[in-house]
Amino acid sequence: MRFTDTLATRLHFEDQGSGPALLLVHGHPFDHTMWQPQIDRFSRTHRVIAPDLRGYGATPLGASTGATRLGDFAEDLVALLDALEVEECVLAGLSMGGQIAMELVRRHPERVRGLVLADTFPAAETEEGRAARNAMADRLLKEGMRGYADEVLDLMVAPYNTHAAPHVHRMMRATDPVAAAAALRGRAERPDYRATLTTVAVPALVVVGRDDTYTPVADAEEMHALLPHSTLAVIERAAHLPNLERPEEFDAVLSAFLRSLVRPS
């Protein structure tokens, strides 16, 4: 395992392949292995960097005030890029990872040469949503992850994609409930990224599973309309994790996008 120190934690990451850098940011409550099909596929053509976010996988939560904000995650990722001497990357994030990607591009647009937003949404939290996230944080601290993982599995992975369910369930159960609660409280306070998306100068790819109920196709269409240079791809027969549910279809879309970014020699 490889680690690098940030201001707040010791970040674990995978760094495979060579070529243009592709930074993969996982969602909640998962870890970097959420991207295993893409690590295997794209490390043939790219330098694929896949970290465990603060408090997830093998990365400890570190000093916490009870809330891990999206900006905390974003600055950890910039510290990782600095440690690896990567000046710019294609930045891909799914769900919470997509919101972290939006925060990173808002703070450090010069570090991003292509943006991939999968199964995510840009709006700030509603009052009802903020209350729900904080209530769930309280529940996870009290009960742990098992009950939550059981309840949401069929929303994360469509019931007809049973091949992906065991891995997803294991990741959710293995997540530290203290870290998961801190991330939920931080996401409850996130800003609205819709104005940020209108300023993104690099090419972007928006991907969504057709049957995603957490971030439906309408959210992806909104992001596509806001981004000045974007492509929208809807993955059929997938829910919230199309990269695991339909990896061949997801990888084909991502591969085409990455090829479009190749600069003439």
Automatic annotation (TrEMBL):
**Signal peptide range:** none
Family matches, as Gene3D superfamilies: alpha/beta hydrolase
A single GO molecular-function term is: hydrolase activity
Known Pfam families for this protein? Abhydrolase_1
Q: Which residues form the AB hydrolase-1 domain?
A: 20-247
Task: Give the matching InterPro entries.
Answer: AB_hydrolase_1, AB_hydrolase_fold, AB_hydrolase_sf
Q: Which UniProt keywords apply?
A: Hydrolase
Q: What is the official name of this protein in its record?
A: Alpha/beta hydrolase
Organism expressing this protein natively:
Streptomyces tanashiensis
